[in-house]
Write a structure and sequence with these properties.
The protein is α+β, with helices and mostly antiparallel strands. It has helices at 14-24, 29-35, 44-60; strands at 4-7, 74-77, 88-93. The protein has 3 helices and 3 strands; from the N terminus they run E-H-H-H-E-E.
Length: 98
């Protein structure tokens, strides 16, 4: 089972968000939520919000917090939209181990 969350139209460059995403990509979602408030980057707030959203989506589907992990977490710009706008999408999915 998968739980996903996506946040679009973040007014920040993808490169800045990727720095934070790489910092938490090796952690479990619960450990990432614990460590993100201590990362002194502006991009930590949008990443924190989308991880919280993904964890709550997983809970709504009946998954346990202890069994969650990041299958994919990414920050990317949307090339289809107009020039000069940085559109980001963050996505996590948490397959259940049980």
């Amino acid at each position: 089972m998968r739980a996903e969350a996506c946040q679009k139209y973040i007014k920040m460059s993808p490169r800045k968000v990727r720095l934070v995403v790489r910092a938490v990509s090796g952690l479990t979602p619960i450990a990432a939520l614990d460590s993100l408030p201590y990362i002194e980057k502006a991009a930590a707030l949008p990443v924190l919000k989308v991880i919280k959203s993904a964890v709550s989506n997983a809970k709504a589907k009946g998954m346990k917090e202890e069994n969650l992990f990041f299958e994919k977490i990414e920050a990317r710009s949307d090339p289809e939209k107009g020039s000069g706008r940085n559109l980001l999408s963050l996505a996590e999915s948490f397959p259940s181990l049980s």
